[in-house]
Design goal:
By secondary structure, this protein is of the alpha/beta class. It contains ten helices and ten strands. It has a six-stranded mixed beta sheet with strand order 4-3-5-8-9-10, with helices on both faces. Strands 1-2 form a two-stranded antiparallel sheet. Strands 6-7 form a two-stranded antiparallel sheet. A hairpin with a 4-residue loop joins strand 9 and strand 10. The termini are far apart. GO terms for molecular function: carbonate dehydratase activity; zinc ion binding. This is Carbonic anhydrase.
Length: 294
């Protein structure tokens, strides 16, 4: 009687009702003459669950152990000494790589570590962070940090010629393509020029003359050459911000270029005297510190 009652409640007869019941309510479907269980869409992906569990447990471990050290640094006062602009690449962990403590650095990240040219709408987040640190705070150093194997630079390499030739126009671009092309095409063109040195002429007395000798980068992968050129381009853009003009003119603000080799775990610093990026080692440390103070 109950089977008949069930059959009467649902359209399609007993066979149709059984198929519907198995597929909808029990999570099975017919496959090659037998019933197999389908994926349960109501349950979260096990990989995502495991990852989120690790993050939540990490937060608990911090509360149990690292919280005390964190609070000690935070309670010592909040006066950031620098602003650091880096890429969003998950392999680049600026505060850890540089040994910065909580409260020391204002860290701004975007795909490609771009500081858009003055007047572009995309510069609002960069400018607002620079205003917060340099005008309302006591920041005296701005660091632009690029890195090797940058996915944004890989994209720039792949679309650069299409953009300059007009084969790829803005309305055809994805948001990431539009961002990378808009901010990085100058770097791509400088790389394409194949000159003995990449030059960024100073247009203000207080600006460093940013040159890069081609012989120092000739053995790098093209994407890494563009990445290093990109750091200098963003430094040049920061020097041009009217917001910082007074601080720069008074020598109260310095702009630095860093570059991190992801696979070697080596940080480099741009040295204007050598016209290139120099690895931070025991041998170069004193020179780089002295040069960074100018």
């Amino acid at each position: 009687m109950e089977n008949k009652k069930l059959s009467n409640q649902l359209p399609g007869g007993r066979v149709g009702n059984m198929l519907a019941f198995c597929s909808r309510d029990l999570g099975f479907k017919p496959h090659l003459g037998r019933w197999i269980r389908t994926a349960d869409k109501t349950q979260p992906d096990s990989h995502l669950t495991a990852y989120m569990e690790r993050l939540i447990k990490g937060a608990l471990a911090f509360t149990r152990g690292g919280q005390r050290e964190f609070i000690k640094h935070v309670n010592a006062g909040y006066t950031p000494a620098g602003v650091l602009l880096s890429c969003v690449d998950a392999r680049v962990f600026p505060s850890k790589i540089l040994g910065a403590q909580p409260g020391e650095l204002l860290i701004l990240r975007n795909a490609g570590n771009f500081a858009p040219e003055h007047g572009e709408g995309g510069s609002n987040t960069v400018l607002s962070t620079l205003e917060l640190g340099c005008l309302h705070g006591k920041v005296k150093d701005v660091v632009i940090c690029g890195h090797s194997d940058c996915k944004a630079m890989h994209l720039l390499c792949s679309i650069g010629s299409k953009v300059t030739d007009g084969q790829l126009v803005e309305k055809q671009m994805s948001p990431l393509q539009k961002w990378v092309a808009g901010q990085g095409i100058k770097c791509w063109k400088k790389w394409q020029s194949k000159t003995n040195a990449v030059r960024f002429p100073a247009f203000k007395e207080e600006q460093l003359i940013l040159n890069m000798r081609s012989d120092l980068i000739k053995n790098l992968e093209p994407v890494d050459i563009i990445s290093q050129i990109n750091v200098l381009q963003q430094m040049s853009n920061v020097y041009a911000y009217p917001l910082l003009a007074e601080k720069l003119a008074a020598k109260a603000l310095r702009v630095h270029g860093f570059w991190f080799s992801v696979h070697a775990g080596q940080m480099y610093v741009y040295n204007p005297q050598r016209e290139g990026f120099v690895p931070i080692t025991e041998e170069t440390l004193a020179e780089l510190v002295r040069e960074s103070a100018k």
